[in-house]
Amino acid sequence: MNTAIENFTPRHEFLVCIDSDGCAFDTMEIKHKECFCPATIEDWELQPVSKYAREAWEYVNLYSKTRGCSRFHAIIYMLDLLAERKEVKARNFRMPEYESLRHWVKTAPVLNNDALGKLTDDPVMERTFQWSLDVNRRIAKMVHGVPPFPYVRESLERLSEFADIVIVSATPREALLKEWHEHGLDRYIALLGAQEDGSKKEIISKVKGFYESEKSIMLGDAPGDYNAASANGILFYPIIPNDEENSWKEFHDRIIDLFKRGIYGGEEMKKQIERFDKALPDTPPWISG
């Protein structure tokens, strides 16, 4: 499995980009509930409002239209929600400082630990850096033995016969290598695009030029995956959160053939995206009712 985008050479006419967490692997719940959330509460000193911090983190990363965003966007979204929650205000909780992190996220060309580690003279950035490293340590220790969703392996087998399969993920490279190798799925992958390679939009942009747009597709479980595909003018197929097995079964049984024949786009893709859009709310439950 190639990990260097600059050395990528296509072998097929078709391109299939696939997100990892929550799309190919059922890892979103364990990573966010058992790794990200405890690290966030501890490292950002949110213990006095831990209940509300947990609810905000899970909403941002699992149960809303911001699902799948990078950890650096997620921590800002989560802290913003927490700061506005009436129960938090009623406890007179003093929120941690994070404005310099907000500025970095808005202005930095790349959001990853390598870039962040160069900014640790700022105490907010140092805290963010240590938190991000803590998350990685917890994931490395906690997440293993989590298999791909049903029909993922079978789909990859079929796709690899006529398409170059590229992982497009915001997850650090080391974790992706471990997870895809652990389950023997790396044999199907032409290229691994990870957090270190830029955003999902940027990763796709670096490989799409080798293929015709109607022969290129992105599979993902989050609106950010759809946005990355749309920005690059390629097709999109959603893996619906909480209905992943049926999504993969339909992809394996029906959509692969439509894609290969060049007739997936149009009304079929529109119908899939409409289902996807209805699956995730854009207002927190403590606000909407």
UniProtKB/TrEMBL annotation:
Taxonomic lineage of the native organism: Bacteria, Bacillati, Bacillota, Clostridia, Eubacteriales
InterPro entries, A to Z: HAD-like_sf, HAD_sf
SUPFAM superfamilies cross-referenced by the UniProt entry: HAD-like
Name of the molecule in the record: Haloacid dehalogenase
Source domain of life: Bacteria
